[in-house]
From TrEMBL:
It is found in: Cell inner membrane; Cytoplasm. This is Signal recognition particle protein. Residues 269-282 form the SRP54-type proteins GTP-binding domain. GO terms for biological process: SRP-dependent cotranslational protein targeting to membrane. GO terms for cellular component: plasma membrane; signal recognition particle. The chain holds residues 1 to 296 of 486 of the full protein. Part of the signal recognition particle protein translocation system, which is composed of SRP and FtsY. SRP is a ribonucleoprotein composed of Ffh and a 4.5S RNA molecule.
């Protein structure tokens, strides 16, 4: 995760650390390199611009250049700015309502939505001891509902029985009723995805959200798509009140552009990172730990 970005930044800071005194020109030269590294990592340009401005101002303005360990000071300033860029605090799921709490999963087809639904359900069951029900509202993709049922069996989580021919809003109603009657704590609704953002997808998603009134609407996006992932998030958040983002395939993401731009561009916190195909490969997204990994 973030190997190429990490390596680039590591090189810049090693050169800084290796020097005794640092002048303003040295800091500015280093920041030019950081800027290029972030742009190569596919971080959105306005985010990079803000970041460099903030860090440069602090590094030049403070006592950094006069300090005995100026290189380390600059790294600390960069670290703090990265944490802020990633969202500062760890964003938790907000499920503190009278049960069932409802989590609605949205996203494009292939983003990892169904897998992530099962990963979250497994985590809530095992870690938080919740009684979880999952339901697939994907009536477009053949066998999507069966896929969720299979995953449910693998993670020991109940899935709503499939009724052939039922439409998404009706499935949502049935799931809600089943969750209430059978005393489930959490209901995870896996909605249909499309290959591209289109109005039919948005309309269906809004209709389901109206019926289900979810506490959490989580957008699942593929981190490997970089700034496209951020644009998808922008589009979705204009249509439904997203409460957070799950970035999948972070295990293969050497660049990190989506993770670094997401919060600043969309205002939405990243709540989880998908770290592999296995159903336990889901991590809570801790901004300070992620910044730590980037800076090595
Ligand atoms: P959906 O169409 O959005 O429901 O996508 P799926 O859940 O069916 O996932 C598509 C593919 O991506 C599957 O092969 C998953 O195993 C894989 N996948 C999902 N999340 C991750 C992840 O975090 N890392 C990796 N490496 N693969 C993932």
């Amino acid at each position: 995760m973030f190997e190429s970005l990490s390596e680039r930044l590591g090189g810049v800071f090693e050169r800084l650390r290796g020097r005794g005194a640092l002048g303003e020109a040295d800091v500015r030269a280093a920041m030019r390199e950081v800027r290029i590294a972030l742009l190569e990592a596919d971080v959105a340009l306005p985010v990079v611009r803000d970041f460099i401005e903030k860090v440069t101002e602090q590094a030049v303005g403070h006592q950094v250049v006069k300090s005995v360990t100026p290189g380390q000071q600059v790294v600390k300033i960069v670290n703090d700015a990265l944490v802020e860029m990633l969202g500062s605090e760890t964003a938790e799921l907000e499920l503190d309502v009278s049960p069932p709490a409802i989590i609605m999963m949205v996203g494009l087809q292939g983003s990892g939505k169904t897998t992530t639904s099962a990963k979250i359900a497994k985590r809530l069951t095992e870690k938080d001891r919740k009684k979880v029900l999952m339901a697939s509202l994907d009536v477009n993709r053949p066998a999507a509902q069966e896929q969720l049922a299979t995953l449910g069996t693998q993670v020991n989580v109940a899935t709503l029985p499939i009724v052939a021919g039922q439409q998404p809003v009706d499935i949502a109603r049935r799931a809600l009723q089943a969750a209430k009657l059978q005393g489930f704590d959490v209901l995870v609704l896996d909605t249909a995805g499309r290959l591209h953002v289109d109005q039919a997808l948005m309309d269906e998603m809004k209709a389901v959200a109206d019926v289900a009134q979810p506490q959490e609407i989580l957008l699942v996006v593929d981190s490997l798509t970089g700034q496209d992932a951020v644009n998808v998030a922008k589009n979705f958040s204009e249509q439904v009140p997203l409460t957070g983002v799950v970035l999948t395939r972070m295990d293969g993401d050497a660049r990190g552009g989506a993770a670094l731009s997401m919060r600043a561009v969309t205002g939405k916190p990243i709540k989880f990172a998908g770290m592999g195909e296995k159903l336990d490969a889901l991590e809570q997204f801790h901004p300070s730990r992620v910044a730590g990994r980037i800076l090595g």
